[in-house]
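Please, structure for the following, as tokens.
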Amino acid sequence: MILAGDGNHLNKMKELTIRLGLGTKIEFTGWIDQKRAQILLEEANAFVHHSITINGQTEGVPQRNY
């Protein structure tokens, strides 16, 4: 698994990965540019966009009106 990006919870995620014995299974890239993000998405079998927001705000995912 490749986890791209950074933020306030990056170190906690790395620590949890080690505690769970997943250190060799997960790669943390840190911040990446758009070109690297595009390459990772094109090569991915799955994509998960996670984000913690306040007051229902969205981050990077447009809202759809149905």
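The chain is about 30% helix and 10% strand. Residues 10-19 form the longest helix (10 residues).
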